[in-house]
Amino acid sequence: MSGTPDYPFRNPTALEPPEEWANLRESHPVAPIRLASGDEALLLTRYDDVKQVLSDPRFTRHLDAANAARTTTNASGGPFAQRKSGMAASVGEGHQRWRRLVGRAFTAKRVAAMVPRMTAMSEQLIDAMVAQGPPADLVSGLGFPLPVWVICDLLGVPNEDRFRFAYWSDTLMNLSKYEQKEIDAAQAEFNEYFAAHIAAKQAQPGDDLISDLLALVEEDDLMTEAVVLGTGQSLLVAGHETTANMIGKMVAMLLADRRQWERLLADPSLVRSAVEETLRFDANPGFGMPRYITEELEVGGTTLPPGTTVVCSMASANRDGQAFEDADDLDVSRSPNAHLSFGAGPYSCVGQALARTELQTVLSVLLRRLPSLELAVPARELARREGLLVGGLQQVPVRW
């Protein structure tokens, strides 16, 4: 269809939402789009529709079906493709069993116990920025190093290896940036590295998530060594890429409207709600969440035939005025805030407690250590990262 728009849409600036979101929510909430692969899918932009689809197990993650739309330009399908090992292969009841098993190792107690170390690492990274002097890039100085360190700590990965993960993560999150040959080579290296890491943990277990998951191999036939490998890799990529990008976007949003930063300085108890609000307000989150159906279903008054691929725009849903009062305003005290940034239903983000804890920790430390922090360039000049399924900013220049 010649009038089908290319997706993802372009943002006017890195912190402003695409104009298409509001237009589609108003007049065409189930809209055809053309993906980077050239295939067509349907985009959902309203809150109720997105929540319905993400919560309905009949909308599956079987995106390797013959008639499913390919989300990326590379043949391997990117992170949404099904794999024969790891958590991506678990759907339905198998996925719920996997979540219960991972939940036994990925506990709130473990996340809470990491806060002092997160705080100390944030302090150390800010010390380095201060020593260098302004202006500094918050993305390279703090946004990316901290989540990589945190996820390496959680998975028991040696800290000196953390610099290897950025490229591996980018290739897995490819939308149109890398060729298939580059992706295959990077993922082969990643698989080899992580298989060796698992073998080392089998020989000498430690106080980390991988060791705990390996201990479950003897208890449950679902938690095989291959699933441990896929789980660890997925958590490493998700824990690194999404949170790293969100730190830069969160701080940029709060500094772009200085009144919000000042409110937090005056009342640090708002940090928790501020994190939730920046997650809701994020205009540059990336691709969204695709789903595939094998039976006829109705969404938003539209009947979808079997074989349809839909893309859920959680970010557009988070700007839906039917779900949020003054949805286009950033309000750090907003409560309640039932945003969909971590998804909904049986496939919601398993690492969301860790992500929230990291964002709250780093924001608290920044407010305390650098209260005079401000953007060193106009917000409209901030540049997006391109070609990846996760949205982010190339740099966030700041001064204090």
UniProtKB/TrEMBL annotation:
Cofactor: heme
Tagged with keyword Transferase: no
Keyword flag Protein transport: no
InterPro entries to which the protein is assigned, alphabetical: Cyt_P450
Domain of life: Bacteria
Assigned keywords, A-Z: Heme, Iron, Metal-binding, Monooxygenase, Oxidoreductase
Family stated for the protein in its record: Belongs to the cytochrome P450 family.
Name the UniProt record assigns to this protein: Cytochrome P450
The organism's taxonomic lineage, starting at the top: Bacteria, Bacillati, Actinomycetota, Actinomycetes, Streptosporangiales
